[in-house]
Amino acid sequence: MEGERESGQAHRDGGIGRVNRLYAVLSNVNEAMVRIHEPQRLYEAACRIAVEEGNFILAWIGFVDPDSGRVRWVAKYGRDDGYLDTVDISLDENVPQGRGPTGVALREGRAFINNDTENNLIMLPWRDEQLRRGYRSTASFPLKTDGRTIGVITLYAGEPDYFDEEEVRLLECLADDFSFAIEAAEVAQRRSEAEEALRRSHDELEARVAQRTASLQALLEERGRQARYADALDRINASIHSTLDFDEIMRRVVVDIARALEVDAAVVQVHREGHWEFAYEHGLPEELRSLRLADSEVPLSMEVLRTRAPLVVNDVAHDDRVNPVVMEQFGITALVIAPLVMRGEVFGVVIADRFGEPVSFAPEQVEFLQKAATTLALALENARLYGTEHRIAQTLQEALLTMPERLSGIDFAHAYRSATEYESVGGDFYDIFEIEPGRVGIVVGDISGKGLQAAVLTSRVKNVIHAYAVGDGKGPAEIMTLANTAFYKSTTPEQFATVFFGMLDVCDGRLVYSNAGHTTGAIVGGAAISQLRSTGTVLGAVARPTFAEKIVHLGKRDVLFLYTDGLTEARCGLEQFGEERLFDTLVSVQSADPTTVVSRVTDRVDDFTGGDRRRDDVALLALRLARD
């Protein structure tokens, strides 16, 4: 609408369903026009249908009050919470209240679309009240009789960029039809003697409804086909995201393609050094599945390889591009081919084959196959990149989780368990190292995220703590501050780390520690548990945090137990394992060695979860002073 249809031209997800609802609104309002001849009832029915069938928040019809020059509503339906009783709309273009959708539609006799209430300056007089009620897009359409504008129908939607060209076109049809009905109703009300004229208007309206209904039916059928192909693409995407096993993805997808296109066979051909192989197929005769075809035998696949564009043959018997020998061998009568492109090169094709009587492929079917091929190629590239990154991250994490075989003055045990098979590279870590003879550094932490990035950040945190702890005389709180600075500067705002860092004197058992938002550690030394709770915020949350230190003592029979939150958050249904069960378990093994403590805790968690996969990784560390 001449620059005023702000940004509603973009096609949005769910557009097909919304347009289908508008078709239903148009059809039902037209039917109401045929049945209802009293204007007020017709206004109310139209508003109700627009909200109930079109999924608008509010619809209202208004006319100009000749005495005040203001717009007043005569019918409304939906949620307005008193909005229409207080709203001020003018016809005067020189005041802000006259430059909105309703005022322009009434004054200029044309539709006015506002697709962004929050940011459209024209909407300033009404913006706060509309946003408070959830109105984020509005559209006003003039109602006319005898060529002059007499009123307006205004619709409110709950999302920005709601009205695109097709929806506006349908709503303009609705306004035109409704204007016609108003005119007919007014004629019937004012001129009861003109029965013949009213009958002709009625007949004309019925004819228009019948014509519109037929057009709507054809459009709905087309939309239905588009929806089926969209659903099929959704299933393909779901298959792709359900596993990183590309062979499994392809086996599922060829079946989905064949069913969506209603073809007899769907195959993926891969090009390798002068020949083509059937990598995946659905519907081919068994004796043909292992065939290797030379480039010269498949001119259609070679053409797609060369042009990188889809190719359609609707009747192989009358197309000179085909190899008739191969077509006869496979029994193919019609086919469509789409390229598989990775890193700018065609590495294969997807083919949909029809056997028996040839049936032409519709343009939307070709488009569907091309989209499916593009999705598959991207999935293959992502699987390849994921595999490479996963191997690097796994190697790095294995190095990060490497612990010394022994350290003088302490006995220790540790365990690491990943959440799932494909996310085994997580951000949980632990470390024990000698600061100097008689003093040991102890670290347990959890980096947000998984994969290579988490492994790199883990390495950075461990190395910073290790570097500042050895030889400089700094305490845990000061080292945490330095680690936070390094982490904060090298990460995004949504990345953070929880870390427990302690320095243990193995001679007297004095443990000085700082806990940056990490889980509650424990010293197990009898029936009671000494809890080592957080003393500061997580690393990376703020630029200049404050970390505190605490001092505890480890007796000869005490065990220090540290862990990451995947342990206490392990679930059985909706219930978490929790700290209470953990500490109860630790009390039950109060005199045990670190290896037994770690083993007993992991067994208890496994029993609780029933062996189900965890939602998060788990790292455990237990240690005690070495006994003489």
Distance between the termini: 88 Å
**Which CATH architecture of the largest domain would you pick?**
4-Layer Sandwich
The first-level CATH class of the largest domain is given as Alpha Beta
Largest sheet: 6 strands, antiparallel
- Uncertain runs with pLDDT below 50, 5 residues or more? 1-13
Q: Could you tell me the strand content as a percent range?
A: 15-25%
CATH topology of the largest domain: the name is: Phosphatase 2c, domain 1
Mean pLDDT: 83
What would you call the quaternary organization?
single chain
Query: How many H/I helical runs?
Result: 15
Structure class: alpha+beta
Question: Largest beta sheet: what is the strand line-up?
Answer: 8-7-6-11-10-9
CATH superfamily of the largest domain: PPM-type phosphatase domain
Q: Please state the overall shape, judged from the principal axes of the Cα atoms.
A: flat
Helicity range? 40-55%
What's the gyration radius in Å? 36 Å
Number of strands: 23
Number of domains: 3
